[in-house]
Amino acid sequence: MDIRPDQLHQRFPELTRHMSGDQQLVLIEYLDPRTISANHRLIQDGESFDEMFFVWLGRLSIVLNFDQQDLIVGSVGPGAWVGEIAVMDPGPACATVVAAEDSVVLALTTEVFALLEKHHPMIASLILQVFSKELASRLRASNRLLLDVLSHDDNEQLVSSPERDWIKKVGGQLTGVRG
Amino acid sequence: MTTVMQFLQTIPQFADFSQSELAAFEKAFRVDTFSDGHVFMNEGDHADAMYLILEGEIEVRRRRKNKAGYAIIDRKRGGEIFGLISLINNEKHGAMALAVGAVQVASLPYSAFELLFDTHAPIALHFQRLVARQLARDLRRFNRALRAAVRADEVGAIVTSFEAD
Lengths: 179, 165
Fold this sequence. Notes:
Chain A is α+β, with helices and mostly antiparallel strands. Chain A is built from 8 helices and 10 strands.
């Protein structure tokens, strides 16, 4: 699959905002386009993972397991990305990511990102800045939600009542689902 | 007193840094020891520094909503960084951080942080990776705590989840 820098910029304006056309071209070389079928699982909740995915086409569902039940907390489409924590600090996933429909993703493994850091430190630096700003915003929001829980008089009632919207809100925060 | 250089050499997060980069960091940091209860930042304060804990422990607290007092939302120990969120997004602090017992801390002023975070020299990339890793770990920990909260029978389980780290 051939992707041009202008297409990459159009799809991921926030990520590429400070990159030149040449830098975008380099980044494209480091990304691995993959076509995946509906229901294909990209990331499994709780399992270690070492790659992230930029959504080029299609839609991915973010699923959390609560009390033996899978709960879809949201979905992301073209222009979004999932699993960036793996690039920053590989470890267990905090959600399952599954293709909601046939999709195309651009994969970036921690190993490939390390090569990008080594050979093109400025591009890696620009990416880390974008990811860090996003993670800082998510942390602040998570922090606020945690306070909501700690301030609640009857946490058990809050949790066990059929307030699935609330759980979805928490789930969205856990996974960084936007919109 | 532990020097920043001696300390940085002992923690894996700084393994990528060269000797000259570590030396540059040492110059940028200021090391101080604070006694129990020292408040590093309050909710609503402007961010003016990033802090690296060399020895000891700090607590992060937020004022409870509609209730008196504070809730402990995080604890950080040697090798961990705090004060990042507000610096990165240029916002006021959303939480209070205070010393639990005596704490030795290296602080990096906002101007130095900005220089390292917003530029692209090799030393800046290592610093950005360090910051990104800390944020990712913090987010994982918060997410675990939130999950515990959703499942918890008691709020105490949340605190336990932090203590297990």
